[in-house]
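Researcher: Re-running this chain for the archive, since the previous output was lost when a drive failed. Same request as before.
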Amino acid sequence: MSSQQNDYILSVKDLKVHFRVGKSIVRAVDGVSLNVRRGTTLGLVGESGCGKSVTAHAIMQLLPKVGFIPQGEITFHSKERTINILKHSPTSKTMRSLRGRQISMIFQDPMSSLNPVYRIGDQIIENIREHERISKAEARKRTIEMLRQLSIPQAEKRIYDYPHQFSGGMKQRVMIAMGLICDPELLIADEPTTALDVTIQAQILELMRDLQQKLGFTIILITHNMGIVADMADDIAVMYMGKIVEFGCKEDIFLNPAHPYTKALLKSVPVLGSGSKKRLEPIRGNTPDPSEMPEGCAFAPRCDYAMDVCQTAPPNTDVGGGHMCRCWLYNGGCGNE
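Model: Regenerated structure tokens:
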């Protein structure tokens, strides 16, 4: 295994995901490239509809029938071997083995992911026995132990309950248990705390962080909440209309944001202790129709720094130490502000 493979658990190169909607083609993901460092948390952030979840579903090969991948590479560097994911069909033996075993995903809405007519324990046990040849009794024992790790009281009794008997926070803990029960190397968490109140949200994030430190897995955390990535992420990728417009370590993104979109996102987030007189600044305008994207930089119609050159798509530029930005301000434009 090369040194790069040791460093990165997942490499995405020039990924494009399109959807057929009537006679139109929607470019939901338009040339995404990412490297995810092993054992870290990558925060993938951006407004709703920017392509974050679609990128995750492409990695898992879980796109709907109207979706297709015209180009790109997704390479998973497991401890055992390197897998070029897009060379395998979604229903192949390799992908069925990979999903849930080496790469797991926590979906946005636990209620739509849990089967309402099956007991919680049976759903987790089924996931274990799909990937490992162990007895049902042993799988039940592991399920109880994992639920206890996730602070679910009376786990030995609650495995016999149905999803509707759990609160929103407890259902999300069950989803985390299902994601981690087979000891995956990579966990993709897609808006894992969106429907929860802030207290439960903090508990779930703390649980994920504690389990990551204990078990050593990598996390891709998908969210629109900059506060969550400030708390959880090591690296941050900022996504806008199907493209990664900025990438860097957490300190680069929060202390020295480069892209105007990143700056606008940070200005629109409330900061604890800033006082009630400090007004938030909403991002002006609306996101464009993904089936009718503007030429050049997609953010230009909403950008305070837009120039004539922005009608041409900007290249991805290193603004220092691996801090990447897709903006003409840093490559042949008018220079930094």
